[in-house]
Amino acid sequence: MRTDERTLAYGGGWLDRAAALRADPAWIAARLSDPESVLLPLWRDRCLVSADRAPVRRSAAEAVGLRSAADETVFLGLDAGRAVFAVDLSGRGDAEACELAGAAEAVDVRALVGGLGAAEAAVQAYAKGLLHWHRGQRFCGGCGAATAAGDGGHTRSCTGPDCGRLLFPRIEPAVIVLVEAPGDAEWCLLARHRGAAEDSWSTLAGFVEIGESLEDAVRRELAEEAGVTVVDVAYQGSQAWPFPAGLMVGFRATAASTEVRVDGEELVEARWFSRAELRERVAAGRPLGRIDSIDHHLLHSWLAAGD
Length: 307
Fold this sequence. Notes:
By secondary structure, this protein is an alpha+beta fold. The protein contains seven helices and 15 strands.
């Protein structure tokens, strides 16, 4: 059973990204001048929030100083016709950024997920990832000249006279896999990663490398980290993963055998868990994956499939 995308954090964003309009500088300027437009302030990959930990939203009419203080302002999309922008205050100190935004503190979006709807979390994740990309692309990797933002913040172009390279936002894809035992779907493989707490178990994951498909990445990661050969790799769902700008793609796979050999680098331990054992852990209050991660949903959907 595939994971329902509506249940995943950082998914289901409601904004119309208006790709056909954001390339027009005059249209963007008009939206920035519209007092009804909305600004979302961020500081160094953190959301600026009010005392009740709600993300700060300011209308353009009340946030002229906020815009002038920003290192970058990017267009996110249209919300019922109103333009929504993200503004980056990373060049300011945290106290000054909070004062400019009228915020109480700066917190990571991950700390807010339990109190935000999925769509609101998606917009905050989107803003974080796009602003993070801008901070890392101030200069051209080809010639070293400065770059300039365009298309409402969805491109950067090199200003070098003999270069002119056009840069686009990048995401970092990773795969995450629930592995079932061969011939017996009552067992799944979980691992303890280096640095994780004792008795802290999760599904296996890893970044996709150049020149491989998502399914290739699943097979390679399982072989490298756990010494497991897998077959029947099946897509389950995907999730925006704003740490800072990733994409987590979930799979199920079946192991060719129950033999496990961890690499000792990424993983320090891996073993097979029965459905009954995982249900006991849940009943005892031990979490299965983080609540905001597709890992959580892969595990719980696997448990539900055995009911």
